[in-house]
Amino acid sequence: MSSDAERSAVLRLDGLCLQRGARTVLKDLSGHFAAGSLTAVIGPNGAGKSTLLAALAGEIPPAAGAILRAPGLRLGYLPQLSALDRYFPLQVHEVVALGLWPRLGPWRRQTRSQRGLVQAALHEVGLADLAHQPLQTLSTGQFQRMLFARLILQDAQILLLDEPFAAMDEPSTQELLALLQRWSAQGRTVVTVLHDLAQVREHFSHALLLAGHAVAWGPVAEVLQPAPLQRAGYLPVLPAPVPRGSCSA
């Protein structure tokens, strides 16, 4: 890694191997995420995308290798919606306020200014009028917006998002993609598992293509080429074109 890249890296992977039970999911993964970068993690089903994010969040220990974090790094993690309980008896503003927990601790009450921060976060994601709604009344898009509001209050330096736009309508998706751009402009690092390659091309600076290992990692324009996508099983391998003036049996 160059000295410039070394200085800008907030998270580095050094020969990382990850397992689920006895099965190796990812192996020999090395590279870094630079401050302010927007990285889409892509690959076919079972490629190790969600496992990687869980490991970056500290929920899965490396089987080998290391995850090296910048000192004092504040990290926010949003798992897949299917992993979250949407029927817990809380109101929207109470869930969003959980983003203040590192500053509040388990027993301190919110100050007036902190309640203002909660309302401002809800306003940023378009949920200011739903602050006192029970969770079970929210649509999928509204529920995800609420979780983004909670992330805003965590004031994290690196955001790990696992399929954050699954089952969301297009307007909500575009608004939250714009929020990711604002986070990047603020110098925050965003690592997002995605399946929509059009979204990756339009909104992300870097991509990490997985298939049990890193097939390609770098600028989006380089990663989303036919050759690496084919090696990862994302595109069918097409036959070589037949030269003009010849025929095949």
UniProtKB/TrEMBL annotation:
Keywords: ATP-binding, Cell membrane, Membrane, Nucleotide-binding, Transport. InterPro entries: AAA+_ATPase, ABC_transporter-like_ATP-bd, AztA-like, Metal_Ion_Import_ABC, P-loop_NTPase. It comes from the Bacteria. Residues 11-237 form the ABC transporter domain. Coiled coil: none annotated. Pfam families: ABC_tran. The keyword Nucleotide-binding applies. The keyword Disulfide bond does not apply. SUPFAM superfamilies: P-loop containing nucleoside triphosphate hydrolases. PROSITE patterns: ABC_TRANSPORTER_2. One of its GO terms (molecular function) is ATP binding. Belongs to the ABC transporter superfamily. This is Zinc ABC transporter ATP-binding protein AztA. It comes from Ideonella oryzae. The gene is aztA.
